[in-house]
Amino acid sequence: MAHPIIQLSNVARLRTRKHKPEQPDPLLPGYAFDAHLVSGITHIEQDGDLDFVIDRPSGMNGYIINFTVAGEGEIFSGDKSFRVKQGDLLMFPPEAIHYYQRAPNASRWHHRWIYFRPRAFWFDWLDWSDKHELVGRLSLSNEKDYRRFESLFLDVEEATNSGKTLGEELAMSMLEQLLLRCTELDPTNEQRLLDPRILEACHYISQNLKEPLKTEDIAAHVCLSVSRLTHLFTEQVGMSLSRWREDQRISLAKQLLQTTGMPIYNVARMVGYDDQLYFSKVFRRRTGVSPTQYRESR
Fold it and tell me: Within a 10 A sphere around the Cβ of 196, how many other Cβ atoms?
């Protein structure tokens, strides 16, 4: 059976070459799916090489957002099944079963998709109000919204395959826009978007992880007092600002350890720790293993 038509991010290619050289395809068994972002498009035609069921009974480690651009697909089977058509979006969380295929009476099903590991402040945007068997559903009601979402998916895909140093970071920013658009269009959404100043604080921290930013610096950047910033941040994000920044640093360190051969002391500096021993202590406290052990276990 031929492989689905996909395009992989640079990180996915690197991880595949290092750990799974025999399996570069994220839609077939054996692909590690340990990159932060993978995007592509699958064209399924009736009786074609790609006309088979995707079956992942244990779900995945990350999220997948799926966007039908032509034809129809069938999600699940039997009494649990439902159809998707052009303009329909699906959000598969990590714990959701994946079972889908071309709808039996449709001649094709073309869908764009993005697999991703979310940033810490995205989680409220990933829990869509309309869910079936944990899978979120959203339908676009007009041509303008369809073209806007199609453009966002294409932009994410282009950025992940650009080969540029900040390509994945740019793709994550575009994915953030896409998720915000979904939240805006969710008709019965009970979620609350982050205060724009807290969102900007998250961006500012993420873009300056290796810098020794003080809380005063971040507060000044978003035009809030230190006390107001710390109160709002904890209230809306669910953890302290310092804890959240540490989460982001460890997350980036994991990615660098997985995808590069960078020495540990360089990884430490890239994520804001000048003292390698202190970095290793924090990393072990958060993950249970040392940076070296983590790299060797991947």
Answer: 9
Q: Which residue has the tokens 């360089």?
A: 266
Domains of the chain: residue spans and CATH? 10-185 (2.60.120.280), 196-297 (1.10.10.60)
pLDDT digits (tens, 9 = 90+) for 60-96: 878 999 999 999 999 999 999 999 999 999 999 988 9
| H or E element in which residue 247 lies | helix 241-259
Instruction: Write down the pLDDT at residue 214.
Output: 94
- Res 248 pLDDT > 50: yes
Amino acid in the structure at residue 290: S
Q: Is 217 left (phi over 0), alpha (psi -120 to 50) or beta?
A: alpha
Please choose, from the candidates 40, 95, 44, 45, the residue with its C-alpha nearest in 3D space to the C-alpha of residue 66. Answer: 40
Q: Angle at the Cα of 60 (from 89 to 297), degrees rounded to 5?
A: 145
State the pTM of this model: 0.67
Strands (E), the chain: 37-45, 54-56, 63-75, 82-85, 88-92, 98-102, 108-116, 131-132, 135-139
Residue of 143, 79, 146 lying closest to 112 (CA atoms): 146
Question: How many C-beta atoms surround the C-beta of residue 242 within 10 A?
Answer: 11
The per-residue pLDDT of the chain, averaged, comes to 85
Rounded average pLDDT over 131-141: 94
Q: Any idea how long the chain is?
A: 298
Give the separation between CA 62 and CA 242, rounded to whole angstroms: 25
Please measure the distance between the N-terminal and C-terminal CA atoms of the chain and give it in whole angstroms.
29
Q: Are 246 and 227 in contact (CB under 8 A)?
A: no
